[in-house]
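Reader question, answered in our methods column.
A reader sent in the components of a multi-part assembly and asked whether the whole thing could be modeled at once rather than chain by chain. We filled in our standard form and ran it. Here is what they sent:
COMPLEX SIZE: two components
ENTRIES:
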Amino acid sequence: MLQRSVPLLLVTTIAAFSVAPFLIHNAPYESTMGLVQKIFYFHAPAGIVMFLSAFVCGISSAIFLFRGRQGADRVAVAAAELTVLLGTIVLATGPLWARKAWGVWWQWDARLTSSLLLWMMFTACLLVRRYGGPGSDKLAAAVAIFGMFNVPFVYVSVNVWRTLHPKTTVVPMLGPGMREPFWFCILAFLSLYVLLLALRVRLAEQQATLDARYLELDDRASA
Amino acid sequence: MFARTAWTVFRKDLTVEVRTRETLATTLFFALSAVIVFAVALVRDGRVVADAAAGILWVAIAFAGTLTLGRTFERERYTDTLRALLLAPAPRAAIYVGKLLAVVAVLLLTELMLVPLVALLFDAALLQRPGLLVALLVTGTIGFASVGTLFAAMLVRARSRDVLLPVLLYPITIPVIIAGVRGTAALAQLVPDEPMATFWVMLLAAFDTVFVTLALWTFDPLMTD
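And here is the structure of the entire assembly that came back:
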């Protein structure tokens, strides 16, 4: 089902990301931050979808580890890569905003630190897959499950340690002209996410088929 | 059965340790080396930066812990006893518990010597509330070792395991380090902040519960080929 929806998702995503800049352009300026605040329309949706992706990765890893479903493993790889990709977007757009709003590129603030840690946990997951050798798919699954359960601990510990970032409570308080483009961007990022996930899973499936064919050929050659 | 297996594994690891003193001696010396490196970085005009002692203590524990964790399973691999251990007609999770207890025991012994040393070298009042400090150290060590023992076990057969262990372990155990450092710093203040330290102990206890459960749950499928 995921695969069949690819053309539709492709059209939706391209359309959404073509319209988004106009909506963001037309949105009113935030009174104190002005133009730099507009990065928020990409920054926050990327962050939200990153969290979602972390949970997709953790849950599919658990299904793979306990049920041994190869399909779940493919979703886990795709979601781990996308978590890192979205995390990179978040960690790149954040400092751009911070430089203007706070005067520094980076602050050891709660949300920044926890996003960085989330990004690190899933990067670790990819590193294991890449350099762990045979059997590393299970190791990566364990890291993803631990990473998922670690999210609340990271959140609480880092929050008590430091807080500076604008609170999540700003979202419902967004001005009338700002709310619509914001939700639109969330949907745009969601559609991009599902599209990339579907494509990445398909790639993994094709790799698996290719490997199986090679093995078959080897068997036939040696027989 | 479960408790007996765990106890046997624990006693075996501890006996090996007591006879060779390999991990304890090297770990402690390594922790001391780390402390020296921090002293160079964090001491200005003969005085240490505020709260640095707590940070130095916990980073030394984390470094020492990685060393200990690497050794426990490396030893099994080296003597080719891991397979025998896994083939034993006993619950797999019990092996994990035994290993975890042994790691925690070695680390607590290291900390027993490390804490006075850091307190002395950096003139930190770490021992104002010994009960809370012990609670922090015990819960923190269990938290760090619970994740670490599982990862060390599953990395035994992986390539480049020495590099991968800290790469996987540190991002996940950051809550433990934050809780340990902030809790210890709260206790080392002029007037110890007991509610704050208690909060961190509770957080660590919750972390321990969640991650020991998770490890027990995932150990079996992870160690099956």
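What stands out: Chain B has a mean pLDDT of 88. The first helix of chain B runs from residue 2 to 20.
Send us your own complexes using the same form.
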